[in-house]
Amino acid sequence: MRIALYARSVAGAELDYINSVFAHNVAKLSLARAVGQAGDNFTRFLQTR
């Protein structure tokens, strides 16, 4: 029972992480588009660390 609960918690945390990274990338691209640099620096805005 506890293992299933822990596994569900880990799966939820991983999904939250994926969603937040996606939202962060959307925000960066929105900013690039707003300042007129989306086409020129597309790959730079999506770089990961």
> How large is the count of helical segments?
2
The string of secondary-structure elements, in order, is HH
The global form is rod-shaped
- Total strands: the figure is 0
Question: What's the overall average pLDDT, rounded?
Answer: 84
Structural class by sheet pairing and helices:
mainly alpha
Give the distance, in angstroms, between the N- and C-terminal Cα atoms. Answer: 37 Å
Proportion of β residues?
A: under 5%
Percent of residues in helices? over 70%
Query: Quaternary state, please?
Result: single chain
Radius of gyration based on Cα positions: 16 Å
Largest sheet: none
Low-confidence stretches: none
How would you explain this protein's 3D organization?
The protein has 49 residues and is mainly alpha-helical. The protein has a domain at 22-49. It has two helices and no strands. It has helices spanning 2-34, 42-45. The longest helix is centred in the middle third of the chain and has 33 residues, at 2-34. 0% of the residues are buried. The mean pLDDT is 84.
In short:
The protein has 49 residues and is mainly α.
Summarize the helices and strands and which ones pair or pack.
Layout lengths: L1 H33 L7 H4 L4
Which properties best describe this structure?
49 residues; 0% strand; mainly alpha; 76% helix; rod-shaped; 2 helices; single chain
